[in-house]
Amino acid sequence: MVPELEEGLPLERVKEFSLEELLGMAIKAEIGARRFYESLAERVEIEALKEKIEWLAGEEAKHETLLRKMYGAMFPGKEIVYPREHIGPELKPVARELSGVQDIIDLIRWAMKAEEIAARFYEKLEEMVDSEDRKRLMRYLSDMEKGHYYTLRAEYELLLDWEMYSQMMHVGP
Length: 173
Prior knowledge:
Order of helices and strands: EHHEHHH
Distance between the termini: 34 Å
Shape: elongated
Number of helices: 5
């Protein structure tokens, strides 16, 4: 088990929670993902990869803002409820020093899994929200998480072939 990842409940259990609880889980997951990417970026020495990870952190912060606005509109005046349980994996800040490419590959693999599950989570939330605007927002978030998955996957595949990656860094973008 990677200390930066908490497995969480299977996605099928979404229907056991209220929409308010699910939005709280989503906000908490976006905060965790942002912190994970920020802490990973601090430990990565490969500049091209560091920039992509910093971009992912910024994207997660935008998702948190959107979800907080939705929560405020749906539950005016209520404090956000962050249930202890969570659906799917939650990323935690990187708690260890990275000793090389293999550590980065491991963390990116877990981040890919989390992004994939986040995309499916937002698809499920889309089925639960009532207005077309909210459905579009959930679809947008799902699509963005899928994009994050593919961004990470491209980096993951490059890291698997470290020689190719290091040559690309010398050539430029």
